[in-house]
């Protein structure tokens, strides 16, 4: 049966061991992207989603959230951005509308509200896919559930006063949802830096513990930095050609924002305006939080990366004789007098803490030897060493854009080709065995 004719209903339990050629786990942009290409090939499949399709964009994003890459980079398969502002940055409602249009265009064979609890190899080949709505058999399994599953909150959080509200970045919505008083934001990656800015612009007293996140300019020499880097083919660089190789997958993303048309996020400027900055959070002594004396080093390193990216753009402009505004180098607008080592929570009036230190992957439901010692999948372009197991939608699966709207289509197309080849080879083998028998 062609995939386009499947109309599963999660409200009715399917018979045990119904067979499908391909099971896709996860109904986000990755899962629907591979569905798009499988449907083109007439490959029967089901997409399992334990919540609703693309739910993380609504449930894990704050109200003022916007893209940090320009809209023209939204290139989901069959559904490129075609709005009026290609060089702008969609805000949350616009993103949800864009994704709703993608879902409608794909019309995937989707089972929502169906959790996959275990995938295991059958002795005779193929896989058992155990779900909350019954068990399926599948020849191929595409894990498209991403890598951001379990919010990271440190154990020291358990010892903090109960009077302090503690939430993870995925739970933050807006400044008014927090109690009156000062706010501590822990982590300065994209979420931490943007949430700290959101609170700061609302007039809240913000304390920010920063880590090793780099930063980049929003605009440089007359264009968005993303546009320059795209012209320089940076986003086409595969992971094996990156100077860090697979180590780039562990990197924290550069902080920048698309808010109000796009601008830099300069933590030094925030400090001038009253935000309190600290180094890496290390502990709690019963009264005060303690910090590593790493603030100055972290700020300097973030600026080094910022200027380094701009210098690479300078070289590209010079090498190609491009007419552009003159170059510049960022000079710090503020320097810490000292690295603060502690923060007395009561004395500072801290009433809420937002943990912005990321997520851990959780693939415990997948019973297959495809993980390294840190629990991360081992693969090449999403293809694992175990026949029939694939990954899609992970950061730097193949290129920088793999976990984003810009690159997931290319990865999904590649995997769809591999799946088609594998299914055909399996069919040919069965035909040969039948003929021999």
TrEMBL record:
Repeat listed as a keyword:
no
Please name the Gene3D superfamilies in this protein's record: FAD/NAD(P)-binding domain
Q: What InterPro entries does the database record attribute to this sequence?
A: Auxin_biosynth/cation_transpt, CHP04046_FMN-dependent, FAD/NAD-bd_sf
Q: Which UniProt keywords apply?
A: Oxidoreductase
Is Transit peptide one of the keywords UniProt gives this record?
A: no
Which GO terms label this protein's molecular function in UniProt?
flavin adenine dinucleotide binding; monooxygenase activity
State the name under which the record lists this protein: FAD-dependent oxidoreductase
């Amino acid at each position: 049966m062609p995939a386009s004719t499947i109309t599963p209903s999660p409200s009715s339990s399917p018979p045990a061991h119904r067979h499908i050629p391909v099971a896709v786990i996860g109904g986000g942009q990755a899962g629907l992207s591979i569905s798009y290409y499988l449907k083109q090939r007439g490959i029967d499949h089901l997409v399992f989603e334990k919540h609703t399709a693309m739910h993380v964009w609504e449930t894990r994003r704050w109200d003022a959230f916007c893209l940090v890459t320009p809209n023209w980079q939204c290139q989901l398969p069959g559904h490129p951005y075609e709005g009026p502002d290609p060089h702008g940055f969609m805000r949350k409602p616009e993103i949800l509308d864009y994704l709703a249009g993608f879902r409608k265009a794909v019309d995937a064979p989707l089972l929502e509200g169906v959790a996959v609890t275990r995938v295991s190899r059958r002795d005779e080949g193929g896989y058992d896919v155990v779900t909350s709505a019954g068990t399926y058999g599948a020849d191929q399994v595409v894990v498209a559930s991403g890598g951001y599953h379990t919010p990271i909150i440190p154990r020291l959080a358990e010892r903090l006063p109960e009077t302090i509200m503690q939430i993870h970045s995925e739970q933050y919505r807006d400044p008014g949802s927090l109690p009156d008083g000062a706010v501590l934001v822990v982590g300065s990656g994209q979420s931490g830096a943007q949430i700290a800015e959101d609170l700061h612009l609302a007039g809240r007293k913000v304390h920010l513990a920063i880590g090793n996140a780099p930063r980049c300019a929003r605009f440089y020499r007359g264009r968005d930095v993303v546009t320059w880097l795209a012209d320089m083919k940076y986003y086409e660089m595969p992971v094996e050609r990156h100077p860090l190789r697979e180590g780039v997958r562990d990197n924290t993303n550069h902080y920048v924002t698309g808010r109000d048309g796009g601008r830099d996020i300069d933590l030094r400027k925030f400090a001038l305006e009253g935000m309190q900055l600290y180094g890496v959070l290390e502990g709690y002594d019963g009264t005060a939080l303690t910090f590593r004396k790493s603030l100055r080093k972290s700020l300097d390193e973030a600026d080094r990366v910022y200027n380094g990216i701009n210098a690479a753009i300078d070289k590209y402009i010079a090498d190609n004789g491009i007419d552009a505004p003159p170059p510049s180098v960022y000079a710090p607008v503020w320097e810490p007098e000292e690295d603060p080592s502690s923060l007395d929570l009561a004395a500072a009036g801290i009433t809420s803490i937002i943990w912005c230190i990321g997520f851990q992957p959780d693939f415990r439901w997948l019973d297959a030897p495809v993980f390294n010692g840190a629990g991360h999948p081992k693969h090449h372009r999403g293809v694992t060493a175990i026949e029939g197991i694939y990954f899609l939608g992970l950061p730097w699966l193949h290129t920088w854009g793999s976990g984003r709207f810009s690159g997931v289509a290319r990865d999904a197309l590649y995997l769809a080709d591999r799946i088609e080849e594998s299914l055909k080879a399996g069919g040919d083998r069965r035909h040969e065995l039948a003929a021999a028998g």
